[in-house]
Amino acid sequence: xxxxxxxxxxxIAQLSVEEINLILDTAExxxxxxxxxxxxVPTLRGKTVINLFFEPSTRTRSSFELAEKRxxxxxxxxxxxxxxxxxxxxxxxxARNLESMAPDIIVVRHESAGAPHMLSKECRSSIVNxxxxxxxxxxxxxxxxxxxxxxxxxxxxxxxxxxxxxxxSRVARSDTILFHKMGAEVWACGPxxxxxxxxxxxxxxxxxxxxxxxxxxxxxxxxxxxHERQTEAFVPSMRxxxxxxxxTRERMRLAKKDTIVMHPGPMNRGxxxxxxxxxxxxxxILNQVANGIATRMAVLYLLSGNAGLKPKRQLR
Amino acid sequence: xxxxIRQGRVVDPSQKINKVLDLGIEEGRVVEMAPRIRKKGxxxxxxxxxxxxxGFIDMHVHLREPGREDAETIETGTNAAARGGFTGVACMPNxxxxxxxxxxxxxxxxxxxxxxxxxxYPIGAITKGSMGESLAxxxxxxxxxxxxxxxxxxxxxxxxxxRRAMEYSKLFDLPVIDHCDDKDLAAGGVxxxxxxxxxxxxxxxxxxxxxxxxxxxxxxxxxxxxxVHIAHLSTRHSLEAVTRARSExxxxxxxxxxxxxxxxxxxxxxxxxxxxxxPPLRSQEDVDALVAGLASGAIDAIATDHAPHNANDKMLEFxxxxxxxVGVETAIGLILDRFVRTGILSLDRMVQLFSTNPARIxxxxxxxxxxxxxxxxxxMDLELQWVVRSDEFQSRSRNTPFExxxxxxxxxxxxxRGRVVWSV
Lengths: 316, 424
Known about the structure:
Chain A is an alpha/beta fold. Chain A contains 11 helices and 9 strands. The two termini of chain A are 36 Å apart. Chains A and B meet through helix 4 of A and helix 6 of B.
């Protein structure tokens, strides 16, 4: 079996083009499980997956959970708010405790960048990063890639515009690195206050004008504007943001006929995207959601043989 | 004679001496320096092949006592300093309670007299509680024995307070040591802002947060003529500004740390919290400029910003862990191995950076082996081969970014007032 070279999936940065293609091909093959009358394969039977979510998440957690169930894994959901974490337990202690339960895979979402890397060093099980701070969200980028490949037939040579709050977005980082690796021309577009320092070095061209990138883009990835960042004065107001960066039907007229619109969700309708675009013919937003499950099934399957053989910490 | 150190290479820039000599010590003071001392010493040290220098002073350490004795105490911190080749340390006031009063200063000095083998020079707070709002009782602390004032760790944001602190400190000829860090620009960052903070998704500390305060201090030092010292300077633009100010005879000095000379922000890619300090590790361009400044004389001192932290506190997510690394037990070896042995730094210059200049800035009767001066001596071996192992540290904390580094050159003996307080 072809497989991934690392024990964990911590970020797109660690993946080779071959590995990305392997995941996408596997996901494509697994996508048909959803069309069966019995949506289940025995691939991970007897394997234990822990979903360790330190940040509230509905769609990513549900997507992972369905992926695990469709692969017949035994699963344990662990949400930080209902656990010992709220009693002051550290991440390492939580990890060591869970590790002693001998899981095969731990899916982790955490508000601190690098938290999955910390677990990875401590745990024998495979760690899947389900989003760490502003760092990476690799399975989201992979499902985005799968969606683009599904609709456009390729990624190589496409012009992909990522528009919005690049600075605080782990999706933007993972997408940029992945699309750039796969040979796309990536544009990061947003107000200069929301483009982080040296972002071009991740492999993106930078623009402040949405019109400039819309005219030639094959794919438009809209990012959520994070209301909670307002206090730091990155943009003057949501209204002004909408006026300059909102994806409206009028602006979409600048784009090519076959340009597709994506959004990692959750959307702020009327802020970064208008309803008639989000629900319009160019939108592939719901394909992304469907592909999310197949992509996560692929990642879990490909990592399921990679956990270390010996526990790091011997039980006494 | 109490002690004779025989035939070491004495490197003492204060007297422009760099040759093989005997050094005679009596009643804690240097009494004779000659190619060969005829008299016998009650104790004699064979220093052939070794470097004998005026005692090294680390002008920026955190001893954590009172308040965080789980991370370090005056006893363990000064033991670590002795093992690191330092005969004296200047300790920052951000303890709990803050050293903002004569009582805390006296407590530190009293504890040091009881437990410390090396000299302890307390630094008093600039403002009460280091809250940045009103001046601490600098005069009374001066009477109790502080050697400088600083709100290190909680730098004063209010420019008017900084101005008043500079004006007032002149009364006692105390330098104002500033940890330059504009809180708004730093914006809760945890590493240098740049390509790596973007790549790693960590909040960046804009280098301008340091540079703007350096420039502020220069403007105010020009006006007040107060002596200002920039702590752990870390960017090339900060250094340019200080260099320019000195050419205009503004009374400003600066120090750099070994970690800012030897590591870059690229080290953070491991998310190791031992790479987290404030100011943060900077870019390669910054490191290159600092190294050039060491050699040229633009930088006055090397100080470690020894910042012990309990392992429990450091074993957290990167953005939640505290800033700071230990440094007193690795500094001399690192500088010898990476800069002196490679020819970037002369031994004379190194002794200036660690001894002559810190003593001059803090107005200590140290930094020289001239006749009648206190016999604080650091003895080094350029050939000593060793490996940094934090489990061998005398410090109570282990948070070093240099774990496992193989070094050639290091301290072999620390002598305070003629008494050998540590040797390999």
